[in-house]
Amino acid sequence: MSELFDAVDALLASRAVLPPPEERRRLRRAHGLTIDEVATALKVRRATVSGWESGKTEPRPPERDAYARLLDKLAELYPAAPADTAEASEDTVVPEPFTGPATPAALSQTLSTGSASEAALPMSANESPQIASAPVAAAPAAASRPARTARPSSTSRRAVGRKVAPAATPAGGADPRFENGPLAVVDVVDGKVVAYCTGGLVLDVPAKSLPALVEWTLTEGKLGAPKLSGPGKDADPLIVLTGAALERYGLPVTLTEEEKHAGRIPEGHKVIKQLARAEWKLTKRGFGPWARIYRPATGSERACVQLCIPSWNALDTRHWGGSAQLAPAELARVLGVYASRVMTPRGSTAVTGLELMTALHPPTRASEPDADGKRHSEHNPGSLGKDAIDPMHFPPCEVPDGHPVLKDLPRFHVRGPAEKLFEEAYDWARPMTDAECTLRHLVGIDVNMAFAAGANGLNVGLGEATRVKAPAFDPKLPGSWLVDLSHIDLSRVKVAKDKWVELDGSLLPSPFTPMGERPEGPAWYATPTVAYAVELGYDVAPVEAWVRYDNGRYLDGWYNRLRDAYLATMADLGVDADLAPADFLTAMDGYKARDPELAIVVSAIKATVKGGLGKLRERPRGENWRPGQPWRALSRPTWRPDIRAAVISRTRINLHRKIVKHAAFTGQYPIAILSDCVVYAANGPSPLDFLPYRDGKPLPGGFKLGINPGLVKHEGTQDVLWGEEVRERFNAPELNLARYIKDGTVTDVDSGE
């Protein structure tokens, strides 16, 4: 009989009622849960939970019953507001949702024992060390937010001109504290100060001075965004000041050359004095394009506003295009989409990329209650911690020239491969063969989000390195290895288990150097590079290594968020992830023109990836620095050149692996490679003219057309005669044509000297 009962229970579980996908997402966000936390608790992949929330897939037993239980408990805490009462009246008090963090273990306990309010959930390190109680009501759903018609001290109204449709649910939509979204663009219209928020909302701003604007933002603006991780911090509100707003509040519309060089206005400026009198402070970088205005935190309360001043070049045109010239409502849309999908900008895209790592892996968390029931701040496992690594504890091979650990080197000493880890992206080219010259076209393909894909699933060090002499190589152990790889012959390599192939090694770049040259002796390499040497079928014998036994997949959440942001924005532009190859190429043709504002967001997301990784090895920026002295960036826990090197190493190796698979199957070899762009000679102008698709399926392990990170898109096509003419004109047989394949314009030629 018990078997029959089990069968009935299984049947019921297989049909457990679930809310619609949008409601599943709302409930998760309302409780401050990440997709990763839910996936870990349910013991499924992150992509599985993402599919459930997008409606692409449905959960199956046994996960379906557990997932339904979780959603039921969350629905009790956060019931959706009826459509006719979703807008609270002026006097309605809406209780805030529970904001404590939820670990996978706590989620598992919730699934097995009852509601989240009954589970032992650790508190955020930013909250006072007391046990929080669950709320009795919930935040309203926020699939879309119409413009409000009333506010305690401001009157909202529709923006004049084109209505700006939101491209995504605002980041703070599920939290009543941030019901007006993550940011506002402040402008002056008809003599009145107004704030353009996300979703088309416009608010009147009563503030007469900049200190008053900061106060209004924090007390009445209802701007900001919930934290991205349980132990983290809510995002501070972002205020973007137009030129008219700058004039209204007594700030210059543009900076002088001296101020541009300094990156700030003078300390004695009248507005800075106004802030000081109101007891507001500025960070060490002063009042510049990305000023942060704050008061020291008291307990769990934060009082901080981030400013963005486009006319002071806060929005670099290389990454944000012409966004600084957009109308306020359109600029609010661009920044709002970025904020909802990536995070509220904290500075340049590079700064934001680095801040995103910390936001997803906060350095500390609240401990379990001690004997007195109090919680304390403790290290958050999987993070880089709150303290920077002592500069003198970094391996000399991993640091750039001028680092304090190298201060005893002779002044003009040049470190070679045996002294310096040099993991960089490809910059390689070769002359075309006679056979290639008979073909008609040069076709460039580009890897989407290549460095993000390189970070996905990568095991990196979390703490300090340990020096080991004559170590046995371990491909799972992140570190830097001194090893001789000059014996590896690309003419004969493994492309699969026990499957050796013969190739023309002279037409392939070495995977071990950025310039594609074969190494000449021992050199320092990151773990992915050495692991690839073993994968190709060769033995390795490291002489020395600096390895990190404390390690983990620190960048996984970072990759996932940026990937999702990129795919969602490209889907809005008409480029979906499941398109057939030919349809994908068609969709990519002119995609930026379909919505230039969203095209700016795509550019900013890509820049966030590259810039964030670059910040891991930030060099001195003025600061009156001298070689051998520490510089400001070294004081950050996120100054980690070893992590940057590992990501670049893996990205380069991923590309080389595809090139080898392609060569083994087709006999075709690349002519030029620049970072993530590869150029091949072909008889037709399309990537489909040389990529080996069979029945719509790509070569396993080779290049595949598509928008997902790691897949490739068409970069550009030129005539073979163009390539030969350019190289002949500049007398450079190995001129890197990948640099110019996109539009064929050769603007600057590096002679190599």
Give a written overview of the molecule.
This protein is an alpha+beta fold and 753 residues long. It contains 22 helices and 22 strands. The strands form 6 sheets. A 7-stranded mixed beta sheet has the order 3-2-1-4-7-6-5. Strands 10-20-21-11-22 form a 5-stranded antiparallel beta sheet. A hairpin with a 4-residue loop joins strand 2 (192-197) and strand 3. Helix 13 (349-360) crosses helix 20 (596-615).
What's the number of helices? 22
Low-confidence stretches: 82-106, 112-144, 146-173
Roughly what is the average pLDDT, rounded to an integer?
86
Q: Could you tell me the radius of gyration in angstroms?
A: 28 Å
* C-alpha geometry: globular
Amino-to-carboxy terminus distance? 84 Å
The oligomeric state of the chains shown is single chain
Residue share in helix:
25-40%
Count of extended strands: 22
Strand order, biggest sheet? 3-2-1-4-7-6-5
Structural class computed from helices and strand pairing: alpha+beta
Largest sheet: 7 strands, mixed
Which key phrases capture this entry?
753 residues, seven-stranded mixed sheet, 30% helix, five-stranded antiparallel sheet, globular, single chain, 14% strand, alpha+beta, 22 strands
Secondary structure layout:
Elements: H1 2-14, H2 21-30, H3 35-42, H4 46-54, H5 63-77, H6 104-113, E1 183-189, E2 192-197, E3 202-204, H7 210-219, E4 238-241, H8 243-248, H9 257-262, H10 270-277, E5 281-282, E6 292-298, E7 301-308, H11 317-320, H12 328-341, H13 349-360, E8 364-366, E9 377-379, E10 427-429, H14 434-437, E11 441-447, H15 450-455, E12 460-461, E13 466-469, E14 479-484, E15 492-496, E16 499-502, E17 522-526, H16 527-535, E18 544-547, E19 551-552, H17 556-572, H18 581-588, H19 591-594, H20 596-615, H21 641-666, E20 672-674, E21 677-682, E22 712-719, H22 720-729
Parallel strand pairs: 1-4, 4-7
Antiparallel strand pairs: 1-2, 2-3, 5-6, 6-7, 8-9, 10-20, 11-21, 11-22, 12-19, 13-18, 14-17, 14-18, 15-16, 20-21
Helix pairs in contact: 3-4, 3-6, 5-6, 12-20, 13-20, 16-21, 17-20
